[in-house]
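Hello,

Our lab assistant flagged a job as stuck in the queue for most of the afternoon. It eventually completed. Since we weren't sure the result was trustworthy after the delay, we are filing this so someone can double-check. Below is the sequence as submitted and the structure that was eventually returned. Let us know if re-running is recommended.
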Amino acid sequence: MISVQKFCFNAFGENMYLLYDETKECVVIDPGCYEKHEKDELSDFIATKSLKVVMLINTHCHIDHVLGNFYVKEKYKVQLGIHPKEEVILRAIPTVAQNYGFPLYAHTDYDFLLKDKIQFGNSELSVLFVPGHAPGHVVFYHEGQSFCIGGDVLFRASIGRTDLPYGDHDTLINAIRTVMFALPDDTIIYPGHGSETTIGYEKENNPFLQL
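-- returned structure --
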């Protein structure tokens, strides 16, 4: 049984997630922790739950989702995994960080490329390719518990922005319709910003996706 813990960090109000199961092995997804108190909140939770961090992964590499990559890698001695098409986004982050007013950002490169599945403890997640908001955006889906860590693809009654470099509106809409909407209606979406939603709710109510 996977437990999902959400934190909301940095000036962008980014949701990062910890996933862990009964083995206490833990995966960190999209660490947006930038300020010291944010890093302390994350590490205190991990210590309190006696978790063992075994992996760090990004749904995509926009700045608000990677601010804590270096901290997590160094503190827990884990490797960072991204989709290969996100390499160009990640390598631009040092410049982006200066432009957005994050002078304390510490850069780190990726260590491995994501494939179709990730495994930790007794658990397995499917890695689904959903481009448009970012060229190599992926989401992490658990069929048994019917939930998806969705990054910035699909929000409650909204979608990810596509006016950033390498974004494309038509690609995103197509990816949502063909990949996300193929998931069961009761699938819970844990997004990169805002509150949770479900696939069924978005099919019925999302103004960007009505036919």
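-- support follow-up --
The delay was a queue issue, not a problem with the job. The result is valid. The chain is about 25% helix and 30% strand. The chain has a mean pLDDT of 97.
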